[in-house]
Design goal:
Strand order of the largest sheet: 1-2-3-4
Largest sheet: 4 strands, mixed
Shape: globular
Structural class: alpha+beta
Length: 92
């Protein structure tokens, strides 16, 4: 599965479950490494770096994930298509 298709699936599922979904469609002028999706619902904040099964996390992406993971209550993670059930459970 292409990362673009996976991202569309995750964003659609999150929207269906009443999450606000943000994705920077043109990140050329943005800070490198910022996660692909930012999801907010109620008091929950989730950042997802989406990868194919073989996709590698770049060092600048890991810096963002590590920093965001230190914020209490924030979930920041790499998500892959094989984790679909886990992702849906987290969004419910």
């Amino acid at each position: 599965m292409r990362e673009k298709d996976f991202q569309a699936m995750v964003a659609a599922a999150a929207g269906h479950l009443n999450w606000l979904v943000f994705h920077d469609f043109d990140s050329r002028r943005s800070q490198p490494g910022y996660p692909d999706l930012c999801l907010v619902r109620g008091e929950r904040l989730v950042f997802l770096e989406l990868k194919t099964e073989r996709g590698r996390v770049r060092p600048e992406q890991q810096v963002w994930l590590d920093a965001l993971s230190q914020v209490p209550g924030v979930v920041a993670m790499v998500a892959r298509p094989s984790q679909w059930d886990e992702i849906l459970e987290m969004l419910r």
